[in-house]
Amino acid sequence: MKPAGRARSGPPSPAPGSAGRRGDPAAWWPPLALAVALNVAAWPTGLWPQLWWALLTLDFVLLVVSAQRLEPRLPLARRAAFRRSLAVGFPILLLAAWETIVRAGILNPQWFPPPTSIALALWELTVEYDRFNRTSLLGRPWLIPSVWSASGWEGVRALLAESHVLATLGRVFGGFALGAAPGVLIGVVMGLNRTVRTMLDATMSAVYVLPKIAIFPILMLVFPDPFGEGPKVAVVAISAFFLVAINAMAGVQGIDPVLLQAGRAFGAGRRQMLVHVILPGALPIIFSGLRLALGTSLIVIVAVEFIRAQVGVGFVIFYHWQVLLTDRMYAGLVVTMALGVGLTALLQSFERWAMPWRRE
Amino acid sequence: MARGVEKRFETMHGPVDAVTGFDLDVGAGEVVCIVGPSGCGKSTFLRILAGLDDATGGRIEVRRDDPGKPENAVVFQEYAIFPWKTVHDNVAFGLRMRGVPRQERDAVADHWIARVGLTRFARAYPSQLSGGMKQRVAIARALAYDSELLLMDEPLGALDAQTRLTLQEELLRLWDETGKTVVYVTHGLEEAVLLADRVVVMTAHPGTVKTILDVDLPRPRSIETTATAAFAALTGRLWEALRDEVARAEETLA
Questions:
Q1: Which sequence spans correspond to the domains of chain A?
Q2: Do A264 and B52 touch (CB under 8 A)?
């Protein structure tokens, strides 16, 4: 056998991933066939209920091997499409496996409701009005025209106030804005001024490591209405503030000193330095702070809504745990995930707009 | 223009003299190169000249024909162009800081971008440019600033050999056309002889002027100039002046 990777003759390597595996690549279908055969054979022998996790792991490995062998055999033009179909197809396969295992009675549907019933619960949550809690998921936007003609703006406001999603979004946006704006300000000042930095650094680092949810009780004491929106927005704001401030400080300190010199050498004054050199130079790190802060905001608000809320996606999850409607509890998780994805995408498009020089 | 300039750094181990008793006169339209062993303080002197560092002694005077003009413009070895500004905005930066109206600074910037051959890239960001192109942007930025004095701190040091040659020729052409007064710090002896009217040789530790070599090669020069016997003779004399200092600098560092 030729030593792998040494052969100079022969066709060029088809893909960087397959370097060192020259010559005839192994056939792609046997691992797949083996996986199918294994699963089918395990069914009548009753291996599934005990060893379903091991079988699924084995399936996964065989699937990976098969896909990896198949890819270099495809024409170059179709490889991107192949990879996309893997990225989309595998999660669907995962959901299908979940569905099958639960439907077959291997996993308890009370704890792990199958994806289809979660989807159904999500649909019910969306269209239904919860009379007991006087809430709905989205605020029943399809009622807006009739309510508007009946009772005007007040009616629409009441309708939107019953929405879990809007309540959570409002708290996240409000708290995030209230925390991030002063966070950037303090962080930039700390980055620029060594005296301020020296004085604040220890305090900031100490409070930074404190889980902000732990100060929620204090905030409930401080605000006149402990169950109102005040403490909830404030705890999000405080969480966002420290993350943004520490990153803004790092961003300012991380600017290449030669760029600061260039700014000064070409006559920039203090204000011009800030606008043209320091802020744009710190912006990439400021944005990574904002991204962290946004993720943390969502975590904190869901936790707070577990404890004290009549409305919000955290409330949806916790309430349906209490009444043991687990498919609706999972639906709440799906909504939370969607919020996270949506908020991150929003911030990313803002980032691309704000930093045109970082686009591809 | 420079009289007895010195720079003393206060360090944990006591004061260190980087530059002492540095005297230098540069005439209008003259190109002066400063060479010296590594760590001899030539960049320190240039930074003092640029006003980026304060001298601890001595004084520097720049005679200004036009009080509206800024004193100096700097080209850094690390390009130091702003990644968040387009080529055009980088070149127009100094003018904008000076409050030059938009139309005028756009015209000036476009002119200099064309002169360094980057018109096609005027709207590009620096991340899309090669090292040589980035340094062209930095040079255009310095020339657009229209200062009395052009200061260059090893501007071609980070570039590969071929790019360096083309940029040397480009600098010669630009200087011939503009008649700029230039102070140019470099490692390269041949580069110094090719570019300069006079070459200042610095001593190491502390840095001061050892000797000044007149380069009487005729202008306009080009890369062909490096093939002449006069060029070789001058480079040889420069190396003779510098050799002892380099050896001394290495002893101190070792």
A1: 25-103, 157-355
A2: yes
| ipTM value for the complex | 0.85
Contact call for A266 and B73, based on CB within 8 A: yes
- The C-alpha atoms of residue A234 and residue B212 are separated, in whole angstroms, by 69
What whole-number distance in Å separates Cα of residue A184 and Cα of residue A289?
Answer: 9
**Residues on chain A touching B70 (C-beta within 8 angstroms):** 267
For position A117, what pLDDT does the model report? 92
The pTM is what? 0.81
Q: B interface toward A at CB cutoff 8 Å? A: 50-52, 70, 72-74, 76, 78, 80-86, 93-94, 96-98, 125-127, 141, 145
Those of residues 241-300 in A touching chain B at CB distance below 8 A are 256, 258-259, 261-262, 264-269, 272, 276-277, 280-281, 283
Report the residue of chain B nearest A280, measured CA to CA. B84
- Beta bridge partner(s), residue B32: B183, B198
List domains and CATH numbers for chain B: 2-71+150-253 (3.40.50.300), 81-146 (no CATH)
Which residue in B177, B174, B152, B165 sits closest to B75, CA to CA? B152
Residue A13: pLDDT band with limits 50, 70, 90: very low
A51 vs chain B: nearest CA distance in angstroms? 53
Q: Which of B82, B97, B125 has the CB atom closest to A272's CB atom? A: B97
Determine the Cα–Cα distance for residues A321 and A318; give it in Å rounded to an integer: 5
Residue contact B84–A256, C-beta within 8 A = no
The answer to whether B202 touches B183, Cβ cutoff 8 Å, is no
Determine, for residues A266 and B85 on separate chains, whether the beta-carbon distance falls below 8 Å.
no
Fold classified for A157-355? MetI-like fold (1.10.3720)
Q: Which residues pair with B209 in a beta bridge?
A: B202
Q: Are A162 and A133 in contact (CB under 8 A)?
A: no
Name the stretches of chain B with pLDDT < 70.
1-18, 252-254
What pLDDT does residue A336 have? 93
Judge whether residue A7 has pLDDT over 70. no
What is the per-residue pLDDT across A218-248, written as a single tens digit (0 to 9) for each? 988 898 888 888 999 999 999 999 999 999 9
* A357 touches B at CB < 8 Å: yes
